[in-house]
Design a protein that fits this description.
11 helices, Rossmann fold, alpha/beta
Length: 276
């Protein structure tokens, strides 16, 4: 009976229709488009909780080469914005465009090829460190993987292991610390060399050594990229071109670090209470 139940579940998954699909004759991003992102009056609710509006009439633009930092309390909508950019979901109203082209008109493959995502809890697979990094670009050579690892501050750790780059990381990377997983994910993103970066920074749970190594690696990753950063570090916000402060799914403030400190509001409160 267990086998029958498992089989039924497999067929349920196979029969599940994707939330979003490419259009019949999609536009294709070929690297000639700029990497700007524009949200216009975007509102969104998750299918599992349609009564809860997670984003409410959100509008902003990240121009090519700029870094936008998202700041706000948990549940304010920051991660949802990050999920909408690679089109994991479509908003119920409003529009999102990449390089001036509305996302629903684009090939999903070409859109996602232009975007690298580094999450707070990065996905690490039960394979070798080398193949985990190569996942960023399957055709990459061993030399290119090593160069990416050096830029991500993970190379020295890898070569200190008895099996080096061939070391198996265990189920979900159980043999790696949080900081090591972050740096593997950063190496993967560096190898992909996408035009647009979505970054959910690691929290202060990292020890000081790992935090320093991760921060250095992130600075290299962000260089010359268009990026949206869910910021947990004040240093990141200070260096961002623009800051959006979210509260209850709405933009409550926007500006730069300096300008936002000069006005009363949530941002100044977060900084003064060292919550950034």
């Amino acid at each position: 009976m267990q086998a029958v139940g498992a089989s039924e579940r497999i067929f349920e998954v196979i029969d599940t229709k994707p939330r979003v699909t490419s259009p019949p004759n999609p536009a294709v991003l070929n690297g000639k488009n700029d990497s700007s992102i524009k949200f216009e009056n975007v509102s969104f609710t998750y299918p599992s909780r349609p009564e809860l509006k997670v984003l409410d009439d959100v509008s902003f633009e990240v121009k090519a080469g700029e870094t936008l930092a998202l700041v706000g309390p948990s549940g304010s909508g920051k991660s949802t914005i990050a999920r909408l950019i690679p089109r994991f979901y479509d908003p119920q109203s409003g529009s999102i465009s990449f390089g001036g082209i509305p996302l629903p008109l684009l090939s999903l493959d070409s859109l996602r090829a232009q975007i690298a995502v580094v999450s707070q809890e990065p996905q690490v697979f039960s394979i070798s460190l080398k193949e985990n990094i190569r996942y960023g670009r399957i055709t990459a050579s061993d030399e290119e993987i090593e160069q990416a690892a050096k830029a991500a501050n993970i190379h020295d750790f890898i070569v200190s292991l008895p099996q080096g780059y061939d070391t198996l990381v265990g189920d979900r990377g159980v043999r790696l610390s949080g900081g090591e997983k972050q740096r593997v994910a950063i190496a993967r993103a560096l190898l992909k060399d996408a035009d647009f970066l979505v970054l959910d920074e690691a929290t202060s749970s990292l020890d000081s050594e790992n935090e320093h190594l991760v921060q250095q690696a992130l600075e290299r990753l962000l260089k010359n990229k268009t990026s949206l950063v869910i910021a947990h570090r004040l240093s990141t916000v200070q260096h961002a071109d623009h800051v959006l402060v979210l509260k209850d799914g709405k933009i409550s403030q926007r500006g730069t670090h300096s300008s936002l400190l000069e006005e009363p509001g949530l941002y100044k409160t977060l900084v003064e209470h060292q919550l950034l």
